[in-house]
Amino acid sequence: MEQTGEVWVFIQRSKEKIVEASLEILGRAGELAKELKVPVVGILAGNSAEFLAQTVVTYGADKVYVLCSSYLEQYTTNAYARSISTLIKNKNPAIVLFSATPQGRDLAPRIASALGAGLTADCTDLKIGSYTHPRTRKKYSKILLQIRPAWGGNIIATIVNPETRPQMATVREGMMKVPVPDGSAEGEIVKLTPDVGQADIKTVIVRQELEKKTVDLKGASVIVAGGAGVGSVENFELLRHLAHLFGGEVGATRAAVDAGFISHDHQIGQTALTVRPKLYIACGISGAVQHLAGMDESGKIVAVNTDPEAPIFGIAHYGIVGDLKDIIPRMINTYKTLSH
Amino acid sequence: MSYKIIVLIKQVPDTTAVSSQTMKEDGTLNRGVLPAVFNPEDLNALEMALSIKERYGGSVIAVTMGPPSAADILRDAMYRGADKVFVLTDKRFAASDTLATSRVLSQAVRKIGGFDIIICGRQAIDGNTAQVGPQVAEKLGINQLTYVEEIVDLTDGKISLWRSVEEGKELAVSSIPLLLTVTQTANIPRPPSVKKIMKYKNAEVRNSLSEACGINDLSSRGLLIEQWDAESIGMDPEMCGASGSPTQVKKTEKVVLKGKQFKKIEQTDEGIRELLQELIKDYVFD
Lengths: 340, 286
Ligand SMILES: Cc1cc2nc3c(=O)[nH]c(=O)nc-3n(C[C@H](O)[C@H](O)[C@H](O)COP(=O)(O)OP(=O)(O)OC[C@H]3O[C@@H](n4cnc5c(N)ncnc54)[C@H](O)[C@@H]3O)c2cc1C
Ligand SMILES: Nc1ncnc2c1ncn2[C@@H]1O[C@H](COP(=O)(O)O)[C@@H](O)[C@H]1O
Hints:
The complex is a heterodimer of chains A (340) and B (286).
Chain A: E1 7-10, E2 13-14, E3 17-18, H1 20-36, E4 40-45, H2 53-58, E5 63-67, H3 77-91, E6 95-99, H4 102-115, E7 119-123, E8 125-132, E9 139-150, E10 155-160, E11 167-171, E12 188-192, E13 203-210, E14 222-226, H5 233-245, E15 249-252, H6 254-258, E16 279-283, H7 289-292, E17 300-305, E18 318-321, H8 324-338
Parallel strand pairs in A: 1-4, 1-6, 4-5, 5-12, 6-11, 7-11, 14-15, 14-16, 16-17, 17-18
Antiparallel strand pairs in A: 2-3, 8-9, 9-10
Helix pairs in contact in A: 3-4, 5-8
Chain B: E1 3-8, E2 11-13, E3 36-38, H1 40-56, E4 58-65, H2 71-80, E5 84-88, H3 98-112, E6 117-121, H4 132-140, E7 143-155, E8 158-165, E9 168-175, E10 178-182, H5 194-200, E11 204-207, H6 215-220, E12 224-228, E13 248-254, H7 257-261, E14 263-265, H8 269-281
Helix pairs in contact in B: 2-5, 3-4
The complex binds flavin-adenine dinucleotide and adenosine monophosphate (AMP).
């Protein structure tokens, strides 16, 4: 059996496009592969996937395996899991990575279970390193260190799968930078015909309803959110201005919605939406647990609050003690000078 | 048609109640001081099972793997309407990762047998992995539909339902048997019924060897919480617990909220510029 030791990234498609979360992982996977001195490989599936293969190369893949089959045109769990598990068994990669999107989290555990491989969910960082088993003292070098928050985000754990292969992980969206595409990059594109047929399609998708949202909080990479401390509808316009400048959306606490400063579809928290943008700017928000539950996994959190004791500072990466009516206009002006 | 529905439920430490007192210095969690609760999305799973039973007929069996105290959530499940419950308890199950857990759960499901639908929560709040459901489905060789929001219909062995996907939702159809995972927005779990609390509060845990201790009597009165160990489900002890878990924790670190990552920004123009420059450098605007 072939032992490629490669680093693989499952490339998720949405219609004719590659989802950004997959590209984010390709960058980091490339670095891991370099350390291991092996190729980084993109895995594409579906008949119309082939024309995306070159794009995967431009984003850093040394090689792309394309599983060509009309049965893989649309994502269904069983057909994908079976084809990819078989490919893994044939090629023996060292590492296989998925994005922690709903699709990635549907597929990866199914494959890990079929292979008896270890899988770490929702990693925020990946590295190559060594590990010594605490009891046997056996030392493992050049293995994948899978870093993720646990216990409601209160601890950061480093997980390893020392014995089983491949080492598998899903990676949280928005944690890694999409590589700069290199139009001149060259890579090998390998077309494969998986043994998959009608019998493998266990789910029929009758219809998809894509949400047309007026507020796309889920998709926003920047959210400027306001709480009761914003004080008025007019002041929320300041937040909106900043959000638009950053290409983001406006979010709110329940207190701000209840006060009538903004409509309910902007609400974030335990009883509303959970978001994890790359940047969350919390303005005039105290930091009640019910609100934190909906946003504490954001990449970077900036808090602006007049009260230095506000709990929001406890989970923020950056804190500014001050009046938002003063701080936000200055942020807007400063950003404009910086982006020129 | 009547359906046999198995719900997999987990008792978890209430991670939403973590505070500085619950964390030890070395970054591990002082589990003892955190209240143990019914995993929230498993309540949604149970509710979905009960509503299928009410709409189409059938029975609901709740199964949990955990320490003996996990029987508490099984009692709670009975108060809400579960017909039969099992607790999988064995020292050798301890320290199982998601794969090892799925082996134990699927063995128990096999032993129960003859099921139509297995329902899990989407994820448990202690690890937020969302892996156990799909891993159980794979072990049992059945289809799975994750992130289920609403059952539309169940007839002639076919289920159709709405599930949420990246860009919205999709209407999916599959044959049974299959496994579902349910999100918190799918339904509002019913509260325990006072009548059922009166009836089931004396439910007792017994393992299958305790014939003498009135297992049959408890069972006939619906008051049995049946306890199974590795042998009773035919589970190879090597394949569960720490020895059956491919993943290992290398280390854990406490998230020091202030100090470690927290940076105070002065409310001056210079401070704001510095902040924005740092954010730009961290690619948050890309
Ligand atoms: C079951 C339940 C579910 C809930 N679900 C949700 C939910 O999903 N989402 C949610 O958000 N809440 C939810 N809540 C409510 C939650 O408990 C809090 O009440 C709410 O989040 C507080 O909102 P806030 O921070 O905007 O208001 P406050 O707590 O009133 O805080 C306002 C903050 O603004 C600061 N401030 C005032 N003026 C200024 C200024 N000029 N500049 C800067 N800062 C200023 C103050 O110092 C203060 O910290 C829920 C509550 C319950 C009981
Ligand atoms: N020990 C367990 N006992 C019963 N069910 C479990 C157990 N662990 C996980 N599950 C089920 O699997 C789901 C996902 O768990 P997790 O993969 O840990 O996020 C949970 O919501 C439960 O339905």
